[in-house]
Amino acid sequence: MHREPVNDTTHRGFVADTGTGGIGPVRALDAPATATVRAEFPALSRRHADRPYVYLDGPGGTQVPRRVIDAMTSYLVRSNANHEGAFPTSEESDAILAEAHAAAADFVGATDASEIVFGPNMTTLTFAFSRAIGRTLHAGDEIVVTRLDHDANVAPWLALQEDRGAIIRWVDIRPADCTLDLDGLARSIGPRTRLVAVGLASNAVGTVNPVARVIEMAHQVGAWVYVDAVHAAPHIPLDVASLGADFLVCSPYKFFGPHLGLLYGRRELLDRLDAYKVRPAANESPGKWETGTQSGEALAGLVGTFEYLEWLGRTFGGAADAPTRRERLGAAMNVIRATERDLALRALTALGRVPGLHLRGIVDPARFDERVPTFAFTLDGHSPREVATHLGRAGIAVWDGDYYAYELIRALGLAESGGMVRVGFTHYNEPAEIDRLIEALSELH
User: Fold this and answer.
1) Which DSSP letter does residue 371 get?
2) In which element (H, E) is residue 401 found?
3) Nearest Cα to 331, choosing from 346, 344, 315?
């Protein structure tokens, strides 16, 4: 495997100051514990040609535990009703929605459930908020975006250039290790900066950005920061208070839940901004932002997701006696982080044995706190689609292309050749699946 060169001096002393906390004394899941966890996910029983199906497509969406399926089914059977009705099923449905808001607040570290807004997906929520934020802008106001981000945290802000006359400032990447040019970022932030849009972790190459540092720089000039945590949420604990985030968005279907979007916004800003909504809708958060009827069954499933994570924290994270849901969820995410680190290190070593494989991003094991277990690569002699197709026929699900990391793929000069192959690991993956991946890749030579 060819690894792109890294200038070690540029990142000496780097700390991935995500505001998420460390792993602490929590241990990674061992083989029996992994088997127990995998039994919670019905999809993992699927087989392909008499072998277990291998889900390495987690960056595009994870599988869900049984609690999610049961909660969604129960909602549709017992509590399926619209909002604020004067009858039992509507009252039960509203209680589930309230619980989803409270649990989501605990998950991201918010202290007020009204700071949580749900929507169909992160992209739709971001477009809605970009329009609302756009109302506050004037011609010449500046927005900072990065070439490392998913386009859902770029395109909505680019639209304000045309709609409101905003000036877009771009932050480039360091191609050697696919990290942000922090010096360039500092130069991009100035007195006219009104908003900085940045990802907590790259959905393409797994880089964890020093977002707390970015937020500090932005706040020094009075700018807001819109954090895309979609790719971080399955892998590292979130803490909006420690980060100091103004807005943070993620997608439950990326962290073992149903297809939903989830947004945290500081209450002051949610109240201050004007939402595009129907006139009779509430004028306070979250009601004024959650336009139309929410997916009650999906929100019930999300409650099931958090129940699963609490179980994980109690059972394997040393949180059996933890008094709060926030602590139990944090313990679960620490178990996940520890387990995924072991998987990532094993995968890095294994991928290094594949001739002609070019891995992008951070490849130094000593810097693995700066990344999540998502790997993107090309393979000499084969297009990314050819590699993905071959793996798919072997019962291994991976992604290929640009995965909406539009600017990154172009910055790396890979757009015309089909992008890269992307594999991602979660805590329900196991070492044998890495062996299957390498076995299948080796067949291409």
Assistant:
1) B
2) strand 399-401
3) 315
Q: Is 53 exposed, middle or buried (0-12, 13-18, 19+ CB in 10 A)?
A: middle
**What is the residue-wise DSSP string for 247-269?**
EEEE-GGGTTS-S-EEEEE-HHH
> Helix H segments across 253-323?
267-272, 296-316
Do the Cβ atoms of 360 and 10 come closer than 8 Å? no
Q: For residue 233, list its beta bridge partners.
A: none
Give, in order, the Cα–Cα distances in Å from 129 to each of 119, 161, 270, 313.
11, 15, 10, 33
DSSP-assigned states of every residue in 165-219: -PEEEEE-EETTTTEE-HHHHHHH--TTEEEEEEESB-TTT-BBP-HHHHHHHHH
Helices 384-393/431-442 angle, 10° precision: 120
Question: In this structure, what token pair is assigned to residue 282?
Answer: 């509430």
Q: Find out if CATH 3.40.640.10 is the number for domain 68-305.
A: yes
Express each pLDDT in 222-278 by its tens digit: 999 999 999 999 999 999 999 999 999 999 999 999 999 999 999 999 999 999 988
- The encoded tokens of residue 153 equal 């945290």
Q: How far is CA 389 from CA 397, 414, 440, in A?
A: 9, 19, 11
H or E, element range at 376 = strand 374-379
Nearest to 270 by CA among 116, 63, 424, 438: 116
Fold that domain 2-66+325-442 belongs to in CATH: Aspartate Aminotransferase, domain 1 (3.90.1150)
The dihedrals phi and psi of 157, each to the nearest 5 degrees, come to -85, -35
Task: Write out the DSSP string of 116-161.
Answer: EEEES-HHHHHHHHHHHHHTT--TT-EEEEETTS-GGGTHHHHHHH
Q: How far apart are CA 97 and CA 92, in angstroms?
A: 9
Asked whether the domain spanning 68-305 has the same topology as the one spanning 2-66+325-442, the reply is no
Where exactly are the structural domains of the chain? 2-66+325-442, 68-305
**Cis peptide bond upstream of 52, omega within 30:** no
Task: Please state, in angstroms and as integers, the Cα–Cα distance from residue 379 to each residue in 26, 54, 203, 357, following that order.
Answer: 36, 20, 20, 5
Closest CA to 16 of 200, 179, 210: 210
Do 334 and 26 touch, CB atoms closer than 8 A?
yes
pLDDT digits (tens, 9 = 90+) for 135-172: 999 999 999 999 999 999 999 999 999 999 999 999 99
